[in-house]
Amino acid sequence: MTGVAPDILTDLPWGQLLVNGLALGSLYALTAFGIVLIFKTTRVITFAQGETAMFSTFVAFTLLTALRLPFAVAFVLTILFAGLFGALIERVVLRRISTTTVLNPVIVTVGLSLILLGAAGWIWGYEIRTFPDPVVGPPFHLGTVVVSQLNALIFIVTLVLMTILFAFFRFSPTGIAMRAVAENRVAAQLMGISIGRMNALGWGMGTAMGAVTGMLIAPINYLDPGMMGDVALKAFAAAVLGGLTSLPGAVVGGLLLGVIDSVAGFEVAELRNTIAFALIVLVLVVRPGGLLGRHEIKKV
Amino acid sequence: MLLGWLRTRGRAVAPYGLGLAAVLVLPAALGVIPGVAPGYVLYLVSLALVYAIVAIGLGILIGHTGQISLGHAGFFAIGAYASALLTLRVGLPFVVAVLLAGSLSAAIGFLLGLPALRLSGPYLAVATLGFGLAIPQLVVWQGSWTGGSSGLHGLPLASLPLGAFTIELRTDQDYYYLAAAVLVMLTIFARNVVTSHTGRAFVAIRDSEIAARAMGVDLVRYKTTAFALSALYAGIAGGLYAHLLHGISPEDFTVLLSVDFLTMIVLGGLGSVGGALSGALLLTFLQNALTRLPVVHDFKNLYIVVLGAILILTIAFLPHGLAGVVRSVRQGSAARVRGGASRADQIVELGEGSGVR
Amino acid sequence: MSGPVLEIKGLTMSFGGLVAVDGVDLSVNSGEIVGLIGPNGAGKTTVFNCISRFYEPQRGTIRFKDRDITRARSHEIIRFGIARTFQNVELFRSMTTLENLLVGEHVVMRGGAIRDGLRLRGVGADEARARARADEILEYLGLADHRDSAVSTLPFRLQKLVELGRALVSHPALLLLDEPTAGADRHESQGLADLIRTMRERFDLSVLVVEHDMSFVMGLCDRLYVLDFGRRIAEGAPADVRRDPVVIEAYLGEPDLEVVDA
Predict the structure, then answer these.
(1) How confident is the model over A195-208, as pLDDT tens digits?
(2) What DSSP assignment string belongs to A196-209?
(3) CATH number belonging to domain C4-81+172-251
(4) B197: nearest CA in chain C?
(5) Do B197 and C107 make contact, defined as CB atoms within 8 angstroms?
(6) Which of B118, C98, C179, C236 shows its CA 20 to 30 Å from the CA of B235?
(7) Which fold, A12-286?
């Protein structure tokens, strides 16, 4: 650029930035779904969502390359794997720890993410690989704005999943049971709901969600053990921003964060994370329960 | 201050006296053991002692006051960069630089404590995580005077003015004694705080904010104090770190370091000053040992997996960390002397009633 | 002091659409033991929480010893001279009995972290004085044997007593007791009533008590206020209030109503 400073209003390619932001935001939102799902049903904040997603994606990769399975088959098998993996994690790790303090699950899930990170590196190595793109075809052009087919797919998947999950938790007996367990254990138990089963289901679904996310992100971010790092962090922030029990909140938070990230990245690239987090702190201070969440006040 | 403390603490001082003796004797002992490079081991121990300072401060914030921070590497970085820049660019004497660095870190810790008043649990975790990520980013952004991604190097040798003459710190042994001395002072300070009405106020906040408020504990004041105190410790430690390594770069201060600090206090035992110390020592040596094992060449980042496993296993099986183990051993033998307390008492005594140490 | 120690006028507290306390007037005179009774959900504890400044009432004033404390900060209340206990015992569970009481004396300890950390002059003396006072209260309440026990190991009855001690230790002028007889049997309640009466003499206290147990309240209180659905429906001497038809109607159907002739 020459010596003239950019005029914010006219020189920024707003349309493209917005679209990029929404695309990026969808990634955050998708990842955030898993976090919100697990929190909504088990009241555990998992810092391991990115790594479980990454691990599942590597499994998909193995199915695709070593076993040469067609994409659709590999996709389904991976989701099944992830569901079982999540339930296993719940059974083996989470069930043994006391979740009375907030700190315990934080530490345990951080530990989990470290183990998965190291394990993935050990099993598959650290070279960066390409992951096949589920959709092939030229990008769409909307006026001056370019949208890749994959980004469009991601955006659609995000909205569809949000609707399905929202309906599931609102209207289906299982969904309501899962929420009940999280909000009032004793009452749920008295009604005959199995806490263990609901928790396992929650973790299974959340991890499966992560697998979907990973497989959609890998074509963009390439495949290596660190691929979900930045995304998971932002997704976390998005989930918190939207209010940890709100799925639509995760979408709002994710998209918002994506757009901010995109614009900030354009203007002050080195400070992307800083700006994003500063904004989140600001929002949380003003609305401690997140944008769409409910702030619980302890009754004395 | 030291004498008064010794007078009132009597028997409790004994283990610390032993520790102090061990600290003083170590360099000489190392020189005698064959096959060990005393300089390198001393450097490692110094590093562990510096980390221990952070751990003790963080322990007061997380263990005693019940807050959370996933970004303490940020305060560590602030201390390191402040002291490095003050000695390198401004030419301030070492001691002044470190004290100023610590104060700056404490002030920022106080500021971070303010939003923390509104946030708790996962929200606070995310906010502090963001803080920890932001600091190195800000350093790189202002690369023109912070040295950017390549960092700052060639820090002048630390020197301590003592009356008429100055001691220049050149060898590993010199830095070792410096780290040990600072750690001892800060440990005493921490123990004093923790066993005083301030320490009780911290624990009161952790156990029941409602009751704490009703008993006159000003949450604003004490939460920000806890943050500031933990930031002070991390800042001073950072200042020492910069000079121990003679140079720093943003990559020294990652999220993994914040997790390291967390692991140290979890392993050592939340709510225990001695625990923070042992956790730091253990973890630093573990990290170093793991990178030296022959098997490691196939297993890069073995340390990360071990760290993760330690976190999970400690929470699952040793929720009160190593300090909890020590405590139960002590109470177990005391109970045997007394004629055996009932089982119920013993089980509870392991965790409860041990909040204020 | 002859005027009211505590004076509440027109207190109104609502949560969203729900009005928990509606224009309540109440006062406690120096040396009185006043009871605040009413059916479940009548808003009694809410009144306490307004006094403690955990809630922000929409309307009304609270005056304590001629000082307007309606907008004071929650940690200042004990400093003014009001100490309380809680319906669900809010002890500091990781601490011992003694330590809990010591926190009760937080307001008399001088200085902050730096003073404590450096063990400056006066810290040791403050601490010793605080411990002596705490021991005195523990002795008075018969808790001396449990001085160094973890409070979480104590039976519920003793925990409530520790909470009482924690409130007493700060030399309060007004004691707010929230359902002190919860979980106590007839005999224990009687003992508690006697204790409160002697405490009033010994420590020169005024007491405001929220309660469900009618016979406890009848035997102990000088005056009663009755709340129902957030409103004050009766006030006066226990003997009068008990016969008030409005009060009886409010309690109709309440299983724990036992209007026994003393």
Answers:
(1) 888 889 999 999 99
(2) HHHHHHHHHHHHHH
(3) 3.40.50.300
(4) C106
(5) no
(6) B118
(7) ABC transporter involved in vitamin B12 uptake, BtuC (1.10.3470)
